[in-house]
Design goal:
Number of domains: 2
Number of strands: 11
CATH superfamily of the largest domain: ATPase, nucleotide binding domain
Structural class: alpha/beta
Strand order of the largest sheet: 6-9-8-7-10-11
Shape: globular
Number of helices: 6
Helix content: 25-40%
Radius of gyration: 19 Å
Order of helices and strands: EEEHEHEEHEEEHHEEH
């Protein structure tokens, strides 16, 4: 028996197949597509599905099909969790933020956890050693910063960063490299600054980096971090198993 995890983000849709806690495969697309779902899950006896969706506010295109064919958890503020959620505005909380903390708790026990997800936005998500999700922070991600520099100025180009860097470029020697330096060096300093502040306030802190753009910063941070690129998927699978039980 297999579980399917569907993570619908602002930019991408990820569909992953699990057998128990074991990750089997993942496929990525730009949007939800029933045919893509069926191709991804073909050959697996799927009974349980969980969907985390930060894109479709009303009339999600997947809901009718999935409800008719599977036991489904459509993740929201009412979903039962293996952690305690004490966030004040639960209805506006992106479920992927909770999932990163659930996923991290599977690896790191008896510790405070800060997960940092680098994607469309950067989210900082804090789970204390009492297993309470407290909250965190949200700031613009790499491509949002690049787009803002282009759209809110008269002459700056829209720069695309196609690869990660082992070392950050401190001094750009033309406009494009100056933008790359400003965005990546600025983000690295921001992330390290957040980690330092958390360390000042919380002992026994474990920091986990994840998200689609995690590799752009993983090797430039001065703080020790653990990297788990697909932490949201593992966390969602744990939440699904918790609800099935």
């Amino acid at each position: 028996m297999y579980n399917v995890v569907i993570d619908i983000g602002n930019t991408l849709v990820k569909i992953a197949v699990f057998k128990g806690d074991e990750f089997i495969l993942m496929q990525i697309s730009d949007d939800w597509d029933e045919k893509h779902f069926n191709v991804t899950t073909k050959g697996y006896f799927v009974k349980n599905v969980i969907v985390s969706d930060v894109r479709y506010a009303e009339n999600p295109p997947y809901k009718k099909y999935l409800k008719e064919n599977y036991f489904c958890v459509f993740a929201d503020e009412h979903t039962d969790l293996p952690i305690d959620n004490i966030y004040k505005s639960k209805s506006t909380l992106g479920f992927d933020r909770l999932a990163t903390c659930v996923g991290a708790r599977n690896y790191y026990t008896n510790t405070n956890i800060l997960t940092i997800s680098i994607g469309t936005c950067i989210t900082y998500n804090f789970l204390n050693d009492k297993n309470e999700f407290v909250g965190g922070a949200i700031s613009p991600g790499i491509h949002m910063r690049l787009k803002a520099l282009h759209e809110y100025t008269g002459r700056l180009p829209l720069v695309k960063i196609e690869k990660s860097f082992d070392e950050l470029l401190l001094i750009g020697d033309d406009t494009e490299s100056s933008i790359i330096s400003g965005v990546l060096t600025g983000m690295s300093a921001e992330v390290d600054g957040f980690i330092d502040k958390y360390k000042e306030n919380y002992d026994n802190l474990t920091v986990v980096l994840t998200g689609g753009d995690w590799s752009f910063l993983a090797y430039s941070l001065k703080n020790k971090i653990f990297a788990h690129p697909n932490l949201v998927l593992f966390g969602l699978n744990s939440i699904l198993q918790h609800n099935v039980k």
